[in-house]
Amino acid sequence: MTSTITLPENAPTLKAESKNLNFFYGDFKALKGISMPIYENKVTALIGPSGCGKSTYLRCFNRMHDLYSGTRYDGSIVLHPDEVDVLHKSVDPIEVRMRISMVFQKPNPFPKSIYENVAYGLRVRGEKSRSYIDDKVEAALKGGALWGEVKDRLNEVAVNLSGGQQQRLCIARALATDPEIILFDEPTSALDPMATGSIEELIGEIKNKVTILIVTHNMQQAARVSDYTAYMYVGDLVEYGETKDIFMKPKRKETEDYITGRFG
Ligand SMILES: Nc1ncnc2c1ncn2[C@@H]1O[C@H](COP(=O)(O)OP(=O)(O)OP(=O)(O)O)[C@@H](O)[C@H]1O
Fold it and tell me: Which SMART domains does the entry link to (predicted)?
C-alpha cells in the first residue's frame, strides 16, 4: 500500500500538509508515512475502520501526543503560508494549539461559566481587556450558533447546557482564539440526530473562516460535510480525493468495499 497521492486538478490553496508522517506509540508504528494535503477553508474527512489511525493522525496536528510519554513523531506537518513544521522541536506546542484547536467526541466544557469557557483561550493568551474579551466571546458564541440561546445566561455553569449545546459551546471555545484549523474527532457521536444536524450545519458555516479536519465513522456524515476524504487502513493512507469521487467512483477496491459496507 502507498500513501503517495496526486493533487486534484485546480486544487484550492494549501493550508497544511503532512509529509511522510510516521507516528509511534512506543515500538508500535500507528501511522505509516502519510503524505496528504489539507486545503484552506475546506473540510477534509478521515474515514476508516476502528483502529486504523484516524485519531492518531488528527492528534499529531496539535501535538496532543506530546502530553504522553513514549510517543514519537517522524516526518513533518507543514503549515502554510509560513511553512512552519508544527512537529519541529523548536515549535511551542501551546502556540500550535492556539493555531490549531480541537473539538472532541464527548462535549467537554470546563467546570466554569459559559462565558469563561469561551474566554479561556484568550486568557491563556494573556488578554486582559474586558471589552475585547466580551466582544470575542459574543462573536465566538455567534460563530457557534449558540448566542441566541445563552446570551442572557452567560454566567451560568456550562454543564447545565444540553449535550448539543455543550458541543456548540466547545466549538465556540475552539473558535474564540481565531484558529487556522479546527480538528473534530467524531464530534457528533454522542449526540442525537437533531443536535448532529445542527453541528453539521455549523461545520458548513465555519469553514468559511477556518480549515477543518474531521474524523467520522458515519459515511453519510463524511459525504454530507466534507470536500475531501481520506480512507485509512492500519496506519496507511489508502486513498485520498474529492469526497464526491471517493464516494461515487473510488479508485481502489478496498475503499469501495469500506464505503459500501462490505468491509469494516
Ligand atoms: N495510547 C496508545 N498506546 C498504544 N497504542 C495506541 C494508543 N492509542 C492508540 N493506539 C493504537 O494505535 C492504532 C490507531 O488508533 P487510533 O485511535 O488512532 O485509531 P482510530 O482509527 O481513530 O480508531 P477509532 O475509529 O476506533 O477511534 C490502534 O492500533 C490503537 O490500538
Answer: AAA
With 0-12 / 13-18 / 19 or more C-beta atoms within 10 angstroms meaning exposed / middle / buried, residue 174 is buried
**For residue 29, what pLDDT is reported?**
98
Question: Is residue 215 scored above 50 in pLDDT?
Answer: yes
Single-letter residue type at 117: N
How do residues 146-193 score in pLDDT, each as one tens digit? 999 999 999 999 999 999 999 999 999 999 999 999 999 999 998 899
Ligand 1, atom 26, residue with closest C-alpha:
50
Is 51 near ligand 1, meaning CB less than 6 Å away? Answer: yes
Nearest residue to 146 (alpha-carbon basis) of 167, 131, 122: 167
Regarding the beta carbon of 226 and ligand 1, being less than 6 Å apart is answered: no
Counting Cβ atoms within 10 Å, is residue 45 exposed (0-12), middle (13-18) or buried (19+)? buried
C-beta 172 within 6 A of ligand 1: no
- Tell me if 30 CB under 6 Å of ligand 1: yes
Q: Each residue of 212-233: b (16+ CB within 10 Å) or e?
A: bbbbbebbebbbbbbbbbbbbb
**Mapping DSSP to helix (H, G, I), strand (E, B) and coil, where does residue 219 land?**
helix
Which of 22, 29, 56, 71 maximizes ligand 1 atoms within 8 Å of its Cβ, making it the mutation to test the pocket?
56
> What is the ipTM, given to two decimal places?
0.97
What pLDDT digit, counting tens, does each position of 9-29 carry? 677 999 999 999 999 999 999
- CATH architecture of the domain with range 14-260: 3-Layer(aba) Sandwich (3.40)
- Smallest CA separation from ligand 1 atom 4, residue: 25
pTM of the model: 0.93
